Structures are given as C-alpha cells and as structure tokens.
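Aim 2 progress update. The chain analyzed this quarter is reproduced below.
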Amino acid sequence: MAGAAIFDVDGTLTDTNHLHVVAWWEAFRQAGHTVPMPDIRAVGLGSGDLIERLLGADRDPDQDSAISSAHTVLYGTYFDRLPAFEGAGDLLRTLAGRGWRVVLATSASGPELAALRRAVDADEAIRDTASSDDVDEGKPAPEPVRLALELAGVGAGQGVFVGDTVWDMEAAARAGVPAVALLSGGIPRADLEAAGADAVFRDAADLLARLDESPFGSPPV
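Predicted structure tokens:
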C-alpha cells in the first residue's frame, strides 16, 4: 500500500509566516490591541485559538470575528505574490513519483488555500487537502492529520507529516504519525524536537536533497 506524505503549507512549503504575522499585528492594532510581533509567531494555530492565546480567555470575544476578518482581508492583499520556498514543488512531485500520496493539512481554506497552491505550483502531485473547513479542531489537535490519512486511504503507520511549528509536531504525535520538522518557519530546533519531531531539516530544498536520510527514505509499503 502507498504511504501518505502529509504537508503543512505556511512556513513549510510557502514563505508566508512573516506575512501572517504582519497581517495579524495590523488586525489586532485596528481592534485596539498592541500585540508584539514575536508573540504572534504561533501562526500554525487556527484563528480562534490564536486570538485566545494572544488576548487571553478574559478578552471581549465579540471582537474575535472582526479581528479574524481583518486578518483575512489584510493577508489577502498578498495572494497574487505569495512565495513558495525553493524546492517545495519539486519535493511534492518527487514524493508523488516515488509512490507517496501527497495530502496537504493546513489551517488555510478557500481563496487563501487556492493562492497557496498556485504558489507551490505542484497540483499534479497533490492528491487531496484537509483544510480548516473540514475539521472541528485544528492543529495541535490530531484531527487534520487523521483526516489526511483517511483521504490518502492509509493508516498512521503509513504516514509521514512535515511541518514547521510545535503545533504541527504535536498534532502528528497525537495522531501517531512520524513528524519531520523544517526550520524554515523560524521555530528553534530544540522547540520542534521537544514537541515530537523525529527529524529536522533546514527547509524544503534541504529535505529534498537528503530525502533518503529522512523518514521518506524507504518506499511506502
């Protein structure tokens, strides 16, 4: 049976984490909140979880929708020029060529997800997508990874997850799937390893160059 190569997108395949940070910073500013940019680095979380993490459980929840909508509008101004990391598309195509079923597991959805896929430019290699529209809980809950396995038609033992945040690593660990971490999202190696990373590479190009040294080194069975 073929294995599932499950990929996060922001910070993993596309160089978009810092764009999210700027968009969230401005969205919070417009709502009257001063949130330091380093604190917004938890971009692997879904909107609701990110807002609660940054503003606290005692915030005015009536602002959540406006803040999230402002982020969506602000980030949307970049849709026509989102940058993919070097080697990202080639990585997906190479894995698909080796028999892996490539599935994206991302908090992005709708026009944002479409823009990210255009940036990666490897649709022919992507079998399916588990987006935030498809699950009740996003990462670090295991639901996105489990759905990706289901879409690929394999069990946890036949999957490998690639991401760039501690939330990605925790989601993979909770789903029972080996996790590959990329440093391209700006998260320190020690934090990724503490969250459950089984292997760490610099970025997509580094993983592609050393694919045989990674959990993808053995053909899926």
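The chain has a mean pLDDT of 94. The two ends are 5 Å apart (CA to CA). These observations will guide the mutagenesis experiments scheduled for the next reporting period.
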